[in-house]
Specification:
There is one protein chain. The two termini are 24 Å apart. Strands 3-2-1-4-5-6-7 form a 7-stranded parallel beta sheet, with helices on both faces. Helix 1 crosses helix 8, helix 3 packs parallel to helix 4 and helix 8 crosses helix 9. With 301 residues, the protein is of the alpha/beta class. It has a single domain, classed as NAD(P)-binding Rossmann-like Domain (Rossmann fold). It is 42% helix and 12% strand.
Length: 301
Amino acid sequence: MSLHGKVALVAGATRGCGRAIAVELGRAGATVYVTGRSDRAHRSEMDRPETIEQTAELVAAAGGEGIAVRVDHLVPAEVDVLVRRIESGHGRLDVLVNDIWGGDMFTQWGKPLWEHSLDNGLRLLRLGIETHLVTSHAALPLLIRQPGGLVVEVTDGTEQYNTENYRGSFFYDLAKVSVHRLAFALSHELKPYGSTAVAVTPGFLRSEAMLDSLGVQEANWRDAVEEDPFFALSESPSYLGRGVAALAADPQAVRWSGQTLSSAQLAREYELTDVDGSRPDIFRYFADHRTDGPVDPTGYR
């Protein structure tokens, strides 16, 4: 699995899946531009400690070249400057990962649309959808210059799961379902240029914020299973990162174009595991079991 000579942009690489995808692309040899709003001099409204410089350093430590660029992906002029920098520095873009989010703090769970803050909801939609559109609009003319380009839209939930289940908050539900359609639509528009677009989703993600909320770290994450039994089926961000890197290196990736792939699907296809050697698959568990009973992860990780 080699991406030597390839150039990737991971938009929204400050933490979580974006960071892990950037690191794994770097491990495969790619040059990776990592963007976000949190650098060592600024914090985004999420007010988290992770920075894009840290991500770039992790990419370099894995064997790639990491280039941190602070960008607000809601500002087209900033994204245009970023793309021109990639073009002048490398003349190509092979992989675009749209992992921009930042909407957690604006999600109000358990409230109907009319009781949800309209300002918060619209801000969430801008962060979760408009940012992807702005970035693709600027970056795709560079990506399609040579065939074989890949666009990865990161969402939460498989297409089947999100079709059959309401996600508990109107604006969150709308944002995550919309990303499936972004990938589907782009797959059609990119096809004449020999490029591919897919959506991907993690399962129950052990993000930095999730670990903090449960009072554990990656090294002792199992201690949180008693508080949240479904955490027994959780996965590290590296699980999806490994899958996306394998997808980017697959010369036949076009066979997935327009589809939504889970981290577990990618792991099965490319014979990957999570960092602990397991293959967690919470969406297969949900397909086979009720969600209100005891959780037995046997056979699902």
